[in-house]
Design brief:
single chain; mainly alpha; Tetracycline Repressor, domain 2
């Protein structure tokens, strides 16, 4: 008689898939690719670089840390996620994964990423990993519900993968590493604001403080998208000044930057979701293409 009241237990395979989903594999993969590109650009395979061992250190350090941070982020936001249509089917709010195991796994992965970074490279790499975790989980995530400036604060820890790749390759940071950091920092503004424009109704329900919700006129959203995209274009020329890249890169970076800026302008002027989606797609293409140009250095 109580058969209809039984709660189905997720299969072992479904549970593993849920944990994999919580690690946000696509974003984690993108961050790892960015770090690897920085490793190659820094000369990781040159005579003075750390070689294949350094590449392995980059993959494990960034991969473990990113997966751990995202799992902990799921745990922190599990109640808010249940309020939004876009996120209510995630593993924790849907009940596929229990809260305590998710917390433990997130701590193991993120702690392991920090420890491995320190042990395999140096204390600077470990410090970057630690500050990334603290900045994302203890600063960015809670401030999402208190201030619209959380995007800028979250962009700081989100821009550290190039620093990790550079440190794994050379053991130190230099101005070129900071240029890559700035590129990734500025790129996040149009990228995340496009997501916020698409899902602003969901964010409003969960009381997430995002500009498209708090600024119905769209003026501040337009300002951030346009200024960040323009600054990104200018910073992308910096490798030409430092000698990190050549004319071919300069032409490619200019074409990519102007196209990205144009799509950003269209999205904020029309305020249409389909144009915000175009901007989001362009952001996903822009970053790997720019880094690919840097790797060839022509």
């Amino acid at each position: 008689m109580y058969k209809d009241l039984e709660i189905p237990v997720p299969s072992f395979r479904r549970t593993l898939e849920a944990y994999f989903e919580m690690a946000k594999p696509r974003i984690t993969a993108l961050l790892v690719v960015v770090a690897v590109c920085a490793f190659v650009v820094a000369g990781g395979f040159s005579s003075k670089g750390s070689g294949w061992q350094g590449l392995l250190n980059t993959l494990l350090s960034v991969g473990l840390l990113s997966a751990g941070i995202f799992i902990l982020n799921h745990w922190i936001e599990r109640d808010r996620d249940a309020l939004m249509v876009r996120t209510r089917a995630r593993p924790l709010p849907s009940g596929v994964v229990s809260s305590s195991p998710a917390l433990i796994l997130g701590l193991i992965f993120s702690g392991g990423g920090i420890a491995y970074s320190t042990w395999s490279v140096n204390w600077q790499m470990g410090l970057v990993a630690f500050l990334t975790a603290v900045g994302y989980l203890l600063v960015y995530t809670p401030l999402k519900y208190k201030t619209p400036f959380h995007t800028a604060l979250g962009a700081l820890p989100g821009a550290t993968p190039p620093l990790a790749g550079w440190l794994a390759a050379t053991g130190r940071l230099d101005p070129d590493a900071l240029i890559l950091f700035l590129i990734l920092f500025l790129w996040q503004f149009p990228h995340f604001l496009s997501i916020e424009m698409i899902y602003k109704d969901d964010y409003a329900k969960a009381r997430v403080q995002v500009l498209p919700v708090l600024d119905p006129s769209g003026k501040w959203t337009a300002f951030q998208v346009c200024t960040a995209s323009l600054a990104l274009l200018l910073v992308s020329w910096a490798p030409l000044v430092t000698g990190l890249a050549g004319l071919f890169y300069g032409v490619g970076a200019t074409i990519l930057g102007l196209g990205f800026l144009g799509l950003g302008l269209r999205a904020v002027v029309t305020k249409k979701k389909k144009h915000a989606r175009d901007l989001l797609r362009a952001s996903v293409l822009y970053l790997p293409l720019l880094l690919l140009l840097l790797i060839f250095r022509f």
